[in-house]
Specification:
Blueprint lengths: L1 E6 L7 E6 L6 H51 L2 H6 L7 H5 L2 H5 L3 E3 L2 E3 L2 E6 L7 E8 L2 E8 L2
Antiparallel strand pairs: 1-2, 3-4, 5-6, 6-7
Length: about 150
């Protein structure tokens, strides 16, 4: 404790001690500060929650899109005659890629969920031949491209 001694002029060398209290914050002041802080933090957390949820779905969409690109690149390397012979929706990937082991390479496990691509091959040339439309869907993400006969 700190004390401050002041001399008064009314008495002879009489000192008066004024104790200055520096013990800290009262319990009420602490609760008041926490209450004000809580009032400020709650709206901020509710404002950030949609952004965090959006980030999570964007991440999932990016992962699925990358896998779709990989599957689409692999499909584009398959010759036109094989693709044309396997037209349909959905296409049997085991038949298209030659074995179930090769077809399973296109499956994706992300955050505990396994995604299997759905491939559709359709004639896009109005029955004149020479143009196929390839569609690959994985979860809620889908990619399309065309392949021509060389």
């Amino acid at each position: 404790m700190k004390s401050l001694k002041l001399k008064t002029q009314n008495s002879k060398l009489k000192t008066q001690n004024f104790l200055l209290d520096f013990r800290g914050f009262t319990l009420f002041e602490i609760f008041l500060a926490l209450f004000i802080l809580a009032i400020a933090i709650i709206p901020m957390t509710t404002a950030f929650t949609p952004a965090l949820m959006s980030t999570g779905s964007s991440e999932a969409q990016a992962v699925l899109s990358n896998q779709l690109r990989s599957t689409m690149n692999r499909l584009s390397r398959v010759d036109f005659r094989s693709l044309s012979a396997n037209q349909g929706n959905p296409v049997n990937l085991t038949t298209l890629f030659g074995s179930s082991t090769e077809a399973e390479k296109e499956n994706l496990t992300y955050k505990g969920q396994t995604y299997v691509p759905v491939v559709a091959i359709a004639d896009a040339s109005n029955n004149t031949g020479g143009l196929l439309e390839l569609t690959v869907t994985l979860g809620a993400v889908s990619l399309k491209t065309s392949k021509t006969e060389k």
